[in-house]
From TrEMBL:
Entry protein name: SPOR domain-containing protein
Keyword Transmembrane helix: yes
Annotated spans, Disordered: 1-103, 148-181
Skewed-composition ranges (Polar residues): 17-39
Keywords in alphabetical order: Membrane, Transmembrane, Transmembrane helix
């Protein structure tokens, strides 16, 4: 018996497509099965398979309907033939069309890929930057760029280098403002002190008493008021003078001092302007002080006194002392000028006493020279403190 042929044609003039519809009858009823084909439609031949229900064929028997395909009890599905050459497709009418016609892929996968690549690149960049420029990264103090950041120096080499070089400043200082150390000549002496008073009136009375006896007596300016009656270069010199004063029933105390041992911090400009001339000035004054202190102690402590100082050296030192002092008086800091002039006046008193002794040698004039030497040593100490 010849197999039935199904040929259904429907043409849509608006879309220029042909639609073929097949009615398939099953136990549950009749259900349409549709498909589309291109405008160049040619006759489609569909041959139903075994057990398939075709249009116009008689309904299956009850026995055959229950068996289905190979006795499984299910109705055999119709076999759909697709003509790929003409673009004819058969499918369920309830199936949705593809969202991306013509085989094009969606935009979202590309957006996700690009966004992921950008995010990954950003994270990698941040990670690399954190490795090289992290605030917690340790930088060697010997690195070429170690000056860009302050880092811990466990060995102390950096601080040691700064201390040796005088330290480094983050800002350049103006010319002439860099600090220098001014080393002044050291003056060592031993004072012979006869008393200390709370009231100035009591110190004045004792000072006048000692001077009336032809002795040296110098009172300090501030309380407690001390009375100094002699001075020596060494302790032995002071002991010789104290033995003479004890004969006058005077209580004696020795006071050793050393002035100018510590250098003074001054600017580079001041060191060049008055620092070096000041050192020369004080050196000449100390030469006069040492020479005449030694000579007066020898004269007062000797049973056969003689006066034989180095007059030429003293005169030469005094001349340089005066010339340098006149120039420095206008250049040194104003706060130290009173003490500076007190030193000059003390040396003037010493030189005047030496001239008087040459004209009329006597012990009272030697004590006057001692008094001038005491004033010089006290003014020297106050002058150095004023410069600090």
């Amino acid at each position: 018996m010849e197999k039935p042929r199904i040929t259904l044609r429907t043409r849509n003039r608006q879309t220029d497509k042909t639609t073929a519809t097949v009615q398939i009858q099953s136990r549950s009823g009749t259900r349409p099965f549709s498909g589309t084909a291109s405008s160049k439609f040619r006759e489609e031949e569909r041959t139903p398979g075994p057990g398939a229900i075709t249009a116009g064929s008689p309904k299956p028997l009850a026995d055959d309907a229950g068996k289905g395909e190979k006795g499984t009890g299910r109705m055999a599905r119709p076999r759909v033939v697709r003509e790929e050459e003409d673009g004819i497709e058969w499918g369920s009418p309830y199936s949705r069309k593809s969202r991306h016609p013509n085989g094009q892929k969606g935009v979202w996968p590309m957006v996700v890929s690009v966004g992921g690549a950008v995010l990954l690149g950003t994270l990698m960049g941040i990670l690399i930057l954190s490795l090289f420029f992290s605030g917690d990264a340790e930088i060697s103090s010997r690195a070429i760029d170690s000056h860009l950041k302050t880092v811990p120096d466990p060995t102390g080499e950096v601080e040691k280098g700064k201390a040796e070089s005088g330290g480094e400043s983050s800002k350049e200082k103006p010319a002439g403002t860099e600090q220098e150390s001014l080393k002044l000549p050291t003056l060592k002496s031993v004072f012979v002190q006869s008393g200390i008073y709370k009231e100035k009136s009591g110190a004045d009375r004792m000072q006048k008493k000692h001077r009336t006896q032809g002795l040296a007596a110098v009172m300090t300016d501030q309380a407690p008021y001390r009375i100094y009656q002699g001075i020596g270069l060494q302790r032995d010199d002071a002991l010789k003078l104290s033995s003479l004063l004890k004969e006058k029933e005077v209580d004696i105390h020795l006071n050793e001092t050393e002035t100018g041992a510590d250098p003074l911090p001054v600017s580079e400009e001041d060191a060049e302007k008055w620092g070096k001339p000041l050192s020369s000035f004080l050196k000449k004054g100390n030469e006069i002080f040492a020479n005449l202190t030694k000579e007066t102690v020898r004269f007062l402590g000797s049973s056969d006194p003689s006066w034989n100082p180095d007059r030429e050296k003293i005169r030469s030192s005094y001349k340089a002392f005066q010339e340098t002092g006149n120039r420095l008086n206008r250049e040194i800091p104003e706060g130290a000028r009173p003490e500076f002039n007190q030193m000059r006046q003390a040396i003037d008193q010493v030189m005047q006493g030496g001239g008087d002794f040459s004209a009329s040698p006597n012990t009272a004039v030697v004590w006057q020279i001692q008094e001038g030497l005491i004033r010089y040593a006290l003014a020297y100490e106050k002058f150095v403190e004023a410069l600090r």
